[in-house]
Input
Amino acid sequence: MDTPIQLSFPLPRSLDSRIYLHLTVKPKAILLFLTTASMEDAGSPTPLGSFVYALPDRYNPSQPLATPLCTVEPTLEFTTRLAKLLARKTQRPTYVGNSISFASTGLGGTVEEEMDAFKKVVEVTLSQLQPVIEAAQAPSNGTGLE
Output
C-alpha cells in the first residue's frame, strides 16, 4: 500500500466545503494529511496547520504517546486525537498533518461541528486502513518472524 490514497468527502454541516484526505501507508508508519477547501477556494493554497507524531505504547496499549511537531492552536487538539486513535488502532507510528477549517460550517466551528467532522474523518480513514488494522489484530506466533 505504498501508493497514496487521495479522496475527498463533504465537510459535515457545510454547504460547499470538502475535506481532502491524503493517506500513505508504509510498512513501518502511516502518514495522513487533511485539509478543507470550498469551491471558490479550490485553487488557493491552505496553511499547514498542526503536524503530530503518535506511536503505540507497548506498556499501555490503550494510551498511545503523541508529540506535536508543528503546532497551530486551532487544529492541534483535533490532530492529536486523530493521530493517537490511528496509532492505537493500527499499532503503527502515525504522522498526521491537519489544516481543516470549520469557518464555512453553519455555526463557524462549534464542538458539535468538530465532532461530526472528526467522526467522518475517522470513518473514512479506518475504512481505508482496514487491512492494516486486521494485520495488527492478528495473533502473533511468538517467533517475531511475522
